[in-house]
Each structure stands twice: as structure tokens, then as C-alpha cells.
Amino acid sequence: MGFWSALAAATTEVQETASQQTAAAADSASQAADSVSQAAESVTQAADPVASAATDAAPLEGVEKISEAIGQKSLTLAEIISQLDSIGLNVGDTRFSLWTALLVVMVLVGIYVFGRLGVRLAHALLKRFTRLSPTQSLLAEKLLTLSVWAIAILVGIDILGIDLTALAVFSGAFGLAIGFGLQKTFGNLISGIILLMDRSIKPGDVIAVADAAGNQTFGQIRRIGIRAVSIVTRDEKEYLIPNENLMTNQVENWSYSSRNVRMQVTVGVSYNCDIKLAEELMLEAAKSCKRVLELPPPTVWLNEYGDSSVNFTIHCWIRDPENGVGNVKSEVLKKLWDLFQERGIEIPFPQRDINLRGNEKFDQLVAAIAQRVENKSGE
Asked: What is the pTM of this model?
């Protein structure tokens, strides 16, 4: 009994010792687990800013959607896009990469192509399905052009996923730029639209213009642009006059309500000729010109009694001033020259009467001249 009692006591002691060791080992493992958990939390906390930065620095929304769509179609293209997208930088909350820049360039090219083709198609449809006057057609074409380009730009912004509210910051600065820097540009744009709507000046009209030296000439309006009106003179000089100038300044339009233009040809005849015959010949010369209209008929007015001639003015009407007025005047004068030569009508030149007063020196000069003449005749 004593042996078994000792053995039981030893066994109990061994079990207690083992239990204590097991508990100590469990405590050590728990402490180690707590250390690992703390380290994991530290790593997680350190990784959170990086992940947050990577999440915040997202590419443009439209670029990301396009990348995902292409990646679903082809794995090879997805890898290329991934490599291109890895090369870039973060600007604020947006990431700009090589792929982003390439896609923006492609969208801009697409907007340009779409705008050009859309404008041509819109103009073709307008000419085919409408019967507008040239002025109304030009105005409609300009409005269609602005509309097509506006749609193309908005489509491009939508494709790229640009948030327009982000541009609200620049609206104030843009408004100031329009108010100061682009005031004339927008003024000319609005003036051009008003001119086309008002039809006071339209392509094909003949208006009087003045060059930089102040010399006035006339020219035909070739086109009315967004900024300026193109006017071509008979010398093939092209003047670009801002639309705003034509709105605010006085304009002499030769063909606003009627294309008939009256021109004047001045002629002087001698006091010794038959002025009634001369007047008939002037009318005949004017009527012989092909460009002179029969109605209203040419007329001849006696203008004044000049120093050396009786001055007349031939009034004749033409309907095509864009073809020139100087050539009509030349044709009338050449025909009149032949008629005057045939009928003996004299075209005078300036004449002056000189009165010489006698004095001693003048008498000496006359005597010297007379003596020289006698000497030459004696030789």
C-alpha cells in the first residue's frame, strides 16, 4: 500500500508539472499570436495610405471604361494598355499616364474628323432639301457649323468622362477673358449674324470702300465670314473689313434695293461749235455702249461755262457695276472722239491772253530782237 501511494503521489506531481508547463506554453503562444496580430495591424495601417492614394489617383472615368472594354476583347491589348498606363504621374486626384495621353489625342482627332464630315454633310443636306436665298443659306450654314462643332465637342467630353463641374472654377476667368480679350471677336461674330439676318449687306453687293490712304474705291462682297467681310475690287485687291465696322459705320451700298447705278462722263467743247449738235453726238456715243441701259435712257446736261470750254455731263445707267465703271466711261469717250472728228466739233485746250505793257527796258528788248533778225536776214 505504501508503494502504490508513493506511485500515485509521483504520478499526480508529474501531471501537475506537465499541466503547468502546458499552460506556460499556451501563454507564450498566445503572446506570440498577439505580437503577430499587432504586427499585421501595423502593416495594414501602413498599407492603407498607399492603397488610398492608389485609389484616389484614379484615371479619367472615360479612359478607365475604354481600357476595361478593350481588355475584355483582347488580352494582348490589355497587357499593352497596362504597360502604357504604368508610365505616368498623379496630378491631384487624377492620374495621367501615357495611355491617357494617347487616348486623348485619338479622341481629339476623332472630334476633328467628325466635325469636318458633319459640317459637309449638313451643308449638303441643307442645299438639297431647302430652297433658301443665298443670304439665308449662308446664315443657315454658319448656324449648322456652330451646332455640329458644339455637338462634336460635347461628345468628346462625354467619351473622356470629364466632369464639367470641375471646370466651374475657371468660369470666372473665362468670362473675364471674353470680356476683355475676346470682346472684338465675339462682337464681330454677332455682327456677322445680324448682317446676314438683316440682309442689308449680302454676298454679291457692290459697296464703296476706302483704303488706308483714304482713297475711295468700290468692290463686290465675295463672302461674309465669322470675323470679317471679304470685298474684292476691280484691281483684284481683297479687303477684309471687320463685321463690327460695317455695323457701326456708314456704308455706301450700290446694290441694296436696286442694281442700277448712274455714272457721269464730263465733256468740254469749244465756244465756237454747235452745242446742240454736240449734245446729240454725246447721246449717240452713250447709247452705242452695250452696257449702258436703254431704260432709264442716257441724258446730257450742260454743266457750266468754263474758262476755255462749254462743259457737259453725260449721265448713263448701268446694271453691272461689279464689272467696272471706268471701262464704260472709256468706251463712251472713244466713241465720242470719233463722232466729234467726223462732224467737226472742236475739243478745246486751255487758252490764255497775254497783255504786255510798254516800258523802256521792253522797248530795248524789242529793238535788240529786231536788230538780230535783220542781221540774220542780211547774211
From this structure: 0.51
